[in-house]
Amino acid sequence: MGRPGRPPFFPELDAKLIAWFKEKREKHIAVTCKSLRYQFRKAELSTPLPADFKASDGYLFCWTKRHNIGRRCITHTGQADNREKREIAKLTEEFLLSLNMKTVEY
């Protein structure tokens, strides 16, 4: 999955984290920087690390880059709209009617 480059300082920890990450992604669970940091600390209990090690933003960035993991978010922008024109017209009409009902009160 990763690119050639500098090997990880802690290969055992790296392997545990990438396995955890893949498991979460397969279940369509969002992985945040906060959850990654938590997993680093959790994995650290079974993998001794130097006392001064910190899962900083820079370390996390390099870790995601090393494993070719992009920062993504769920969006519908750019996706094809497969609805028929009649369905879109009906939804638009319903929206405009509800909007009209709300503005009548003012």
UniProtKB/TrEMBL annotation:
Coiled-coil ranges (or none): none
Cellular component, GO, one term: nucleus
Domain HTH CENPB-type span(s) in chain numbering: 1-73
Localisation: Nucleus
Keywords: DNA-binding
Keyword Cell inner membrane on entry: no
InterPro entries: Homeodomain-like_sf, HTH_CenpB_DNA-bd_dom
Keyword Magnesium: no
Major site of localization recorded for this protein: nucleus
UniProt name for this protein: HTH CENPB-type domain-containing protein
GO function terms (MF aspect): DNA binding
Pfam families assigned to the protein according to its UniProt record, in alphabetical order: HTH_Tnp_Tc5
